[in-house]
Design goal:
The structure is a homodimer. Helices cover 27% and strands 30% of the residues of chain A. The first copy, chain A, is built from 7 helices and 11 strands. Chain A is an alpha/beta fold. Chain A has a 9-stranded mixed beta sheet with strand order 3-4-2-1-5-6-7-11-8. In chain A, strands 9-10 form a two-stranded antiparallel sheet. The model of chain A has no long low-confidence stretch (mean pLDDT 94). Chain A is globular and about 55 Å long. In chain A, helix 2 (71-82) packs parallel to helix 4. The termini of chain A are far apart. The first copy, chain A, has one domain: Stationary-phase Survival Protein Sure Homolog, Chain: A (3-Layer(aba) Sandwich).
């Protein structure tokens, strides 16, 4: 088996080392990750600039590359330019911080797995539900369980698995739940400042608000100390809205 | 009415001027757009860097801002930090080049409208089906028709309208079609080069391949010289895959 690992926290992030360590005896590991943090880049790709790529050493990986692009760039470049054969699985993570609710669409970690899926390779994204004091061992063990299953059973066409793991010791995790992406939004605050030359700039800050009255969501699974498994795809069509649109726009 | 206009080609792109001109008598126009090109940035946001913002003059707009961030940043900052009242409509574009098929997930133009939708504001994205010699007047006229309808009828919850316009004189456009996002992928080629100091870099290049045997897609509407209207949302859950996952993961 050949596994491709990427992330959005950068090649030197501890989450990637934990992932390589957990998956290394499943097959040959290639790591292709950004040369620095690329959080919240969404599904950005680099088409107007050159993409720099240099080999680095990473314990447990057969080959590793630090890449000046986004997570989606890393997966594309690895598959089309760096790996001698096509990977059997793409694993993106382990992200420091959950990718649940609306965060999914801003997530570089998820976009790495989305890119793998677009290229027809079974792909998973793994995130840990904390921004500090992560229990990497739990998320790494969960990644291992999920990776083995996906290698064995595959995934539905065009669908990746978005995995969010509670930040708890493994025995305290209450199980796995198949979930949907929770409805939520960020309420942003922009802090307005002035640089020493009088130019205005802003820092974006915000909090995620969850819509009330939902069930079976990724956010709720985490709140219940469960691993959340969400099948994600990249067809953004709102199929349920098609009939209304068809009738609304008949007369144009 | 208050309209917010953004794009991903930058504040000085001709597509934004065409859009302002077409919409200016529908209400008060605010333009918040990147200070340079931000194509293919997907739904990136800027959380690790400050966002610079300076007022600029743009004919037809009550206020205009050149912003150092992504299209999604521009919409967030305009709504939460720049506009005195919430806009009634967000229009993103006119993008030079189609945003149909898999391009939708890489598109900065669509992400501007997606951000508006997340914030609860009716939003549309408008793109023209060419990379050279654009007939702006046609796309601008279509944007006007669609904007008026959306202001009048609204849009379904959580749903934006992704509009792609053929690059033809208006009388040659064959009508409007409500479509879904076409199944396609980019087949990438990476051109490997070396800089004068011996460092390897790559240029990403590629072509979109359309899956065969589809109907009712955005790409096909454009091929038939029709305006394509696709209802797009941001819930990436693959609902049709949920039952299979629920049974596959019952025993974990």
């Amino acid at each position: 088996m050949h596994l491709l690992i990427c992330n959005d926290d950068g090649i030197h992030a501890p989450g990637i080392a934990a992932l390589v360590d957990a998956l290394k005896d499943l097959g040959t590991i290639t790591v292709a990750a950004p040369d620095g943090e690329r959080s919240a880049v969404g599904h950005a790709i680099t088409i107007s600039d050159p993409i720099k790529c240099r080999p680095v050493e990473l314990a447990g990986a057969a080959q590793s590359y630090a890449i000046s692009g986004t997570p989606a760039d890393c997966v594309k470049l690895a598959v089309y330019g760096l790996m001698e054969r096509r990977p059997d699985l793409v694993v993106s993570g382990i992200n420091l911080g959950p990718n649940a609710g609306i965060s999914v669409i801003y997530s570089g970690t998820v976009s790495g797995a989305t890119e793998g899926t677009i290229l027809g390779i079974p792909s998973i994204a793994v995130s840990i539900n904390t921004f500090r004091d992560p229990v990497w061992a739990t998320a790494a063990q969960v990644a291992r369980v999920v990776a083995e299953r996906v290698l064995q059973n595959g995934l539905p066409d065009e669908t990746l698995l978005n995995v969010n793991v509670p930040n708890l010791p493994l025995p305290d995790v209450k199980g796995y739940r198949v979930t949907r992406m929770g409805r939520s939004r960020f309420t942003e605050v922009f802090h307005r400042r002035m640089d020493p030359r009088g130019n205005v700039y802003y820092w974006m800050d915000g909090e995620m608000e969850l819509e009330k009255g939902q069930s079976d969501t990724d956010v709720q699974a985490l709140e219940a100390d469960c691993v959340s498994l969400t099948p994600i795809w990249f067809d953004l069509t709102n199929y349920s809205a098609l009939p209304r649109f068809a009738s609304d726009w008949k007369d144009v």
